[in-house]
Amino acid sequence: MRPSILDPLFAPATGLPGVGPKIAPLVDRLVAEPGQPARIVDLLFHLPTGGVSRKVAGKIADAPVGEPVSLVVTVSHHQPGPLNRSKAPFRVVADDDSGDIAIVFFNMPRARIERLLPIGARKVVSGKIEVYDGRRQMVHPDRVVDLDEIDTLPAVETIYGQTEGLTSRMFARLVGAALERVPDLPEWQDPAFLARERFLSFREALGALHRPDSVETVAGEAGLAHPARRRLAYDEALASQLALALVRARQRRKPGRSNVGDGRLVAAITERLPYALTGAQARALDDIRADMASDTRMLRLLQGDVGAGKTVVGLLAMASAIEAGRQAAMMAPTEILARQHYARLQPLADEAGLTIALLTGRDRGAERRAALAGFADGSIQIAVGTHALFQEEVAFHDLGLAVVDEQHRFGVHQRLALGAKGQAVDVLVMTATPIPRTLALTYFGDMDVSILDEKPPGRQPIQTKLVAQGRIGEVVKGLGRAMEAGARIYWVCPLVEESETIDLAAAEDRAEDLARWFGDKVGLIHGRMPGREKDEAMRRFQAGETTLLVSTTVIEVGVDVPEATIMVIEHAERFGLAQLHQLRGRIGRGSEASTCLLLYKGPLGETARARLEIMRETEDGFRIAEEDLKLRGEGEVLGTRQSGLPGFKLLRPETDGRLLETARDDARLVVERDPKLEGPRGEALRVLLYLFSRDAAVRTLGAG
Ligand code: ADP
Ligand code: MG
């Protein structure tokens, strides 16, 4: 139940004076959550994006030109335009003791002007000063008020960005009324923290932002740094982190099991690897084994850029679970990847004396029945597969660890579903999407994180070049030379439209074109191919029977052919940054130098150009992700807009990263000290969770 103290804030906006049948839909469109009518709180969380100063400052002669100012003036005389020129402006000349100024009106009835600025009146006029014909003038002042009404002039007039047909002034009036309804809420923030950050109360902060006393409070960098905005952003950060911490605490309350292995299998596999683990891999493995050994459930995210070597860490984690006498499963987002994992793991498993089986949607018949039986009776120790591993008919004898590869293709529900396939299953999620730290906190704040921040040694940097589509002929010639020298090449065709058939046609056409030059060295793979054909296309490329593989974006995630050193991406301008980075990650995996050619069709828009430039500049996935965040905003980086995860209203992950981190620590402490949110601060924090629509987390409190 929502605390009743919040009722005035959750009341519909139509309860405000001035929000009638005409205005209400505009307000809804501007601030409401999808499918709901706007509430008062929605108006209040729509913060101004700037302001115009209305402070009376100085004299006419000193007033800055080109900036909005307010001046106290006396009207001296009227200068109507010549009678025969109806388009001519009406000028009102006014002065103070420093000089005079013309206040200019076009197309305004004379009677109205005379009422507004009668001769002899003292008035405050507010607007922008221009110089015309050597004279100062103000065209159509924004505001004209009597001297005794000067207090009604806000010090700063707020601007509300897009207002969907509402003027900023109308919106400001509505918000003004909404501010009157804000109750005094119990303080949910730690008092020492508030004092240190010089934060106002929630209510005062809203007031300070919607009725700012200076433009700097709401505009630009200064606005972002203003304690009032930061206070509200922190409130939202704390609500989100507390919600995650509560969910996490609940998951941990379900008892885990301690899985301690003797290290025998891990050592056997490590010895057989053709390389030594990097420091980062070893550290991640230590984290994982410590988690598994503890008697709480593991929920760990293994984050590492493309090519960082996550798979082997996953394998060793599985070996560790098996040492402890349990089973392990590794799940991949696509059939190709599941098969690739299986192909790589199977020989290692064999040598270590482990039993392993593959299960995908495609497997049927006897093989499938054997795998299912083996999982169920425990005779198969490692399961590798796709979503098929979730299906109800799949049962495990004693699943100890679930490894989920390439997390961003799986939803949260799915990762929990696999965890439900056994008693106290430890979960390791591996993601190749370099999620900016701040976002990782937001969406995976319920998990512990290990980061592979070190690539395997001996990798050479990938050279990335931008090439205009018109030079495709030269590119093909260059590829010919490279192929003669033994190179293996990916040629990626873009998503042309939302239609797979059309994409497919583009890829098929391109493969045909290239086959004219390179004959049967050209392979083709795309999403619509039957699975077995895909496998075959992949196998031939892997084996070097084909050396130029034309593909749609099916190769985006995870494919590992270390011999491939060249990638051509057609219409690179149509891809997002994250996707380009993923694609490019398919090369540069061996010790040979690699080249990525980004073919683009001009003219490039500003953002498209920025994306391609970033790709040329850096290979650092985290940097790319941060830039992506700046270019696109938070919701789209993780595709959350579609998935319906709550986004932020006030917080900006790209600037408020530190607030999020502080909030996470704060939330964890709260949950440790007051896991049921029953103390005085706990009660106040419940209010906070409702305020920011994180109330689903409150329900976990009752659920135990
Ligand atoms: P990703 O993190 O993108 O999933 P993979 O696990 O596919 O990366 O590994 C990329 C490549 O690096 C593979 O060919 C793998 O065999 C190799 N690799 C992994 N760890 C090391 C290491 N420590 N030293 C050298 N090569 C490694
Ligand atoms: Mg991988």
Automatic annotation (TrEMBL):
GO molecular function, one term: DNA binding
Membrane-spanning residues: none
SMART domains registered for this protein in UniProt: DEXDc (SM00487), HELICc (SM00490)
Sequence ranges assigned to domain Helicase C-terminal in this UniProt record: 475-630
Residue stretches making up the Helicase ATP-binding domain: 291-452
Classification via Pfam families: DEAD (PF00270), Helicase_C (PF00271), RecG_dom3_C (PF19833)
NCBIfam families referenced in this protein's UniProt entry, alphabetically: PRK10917.1-2, PRK10917.2-2
UniProt-recorded name of the protein: ATP-dependent DNA helicase RecG
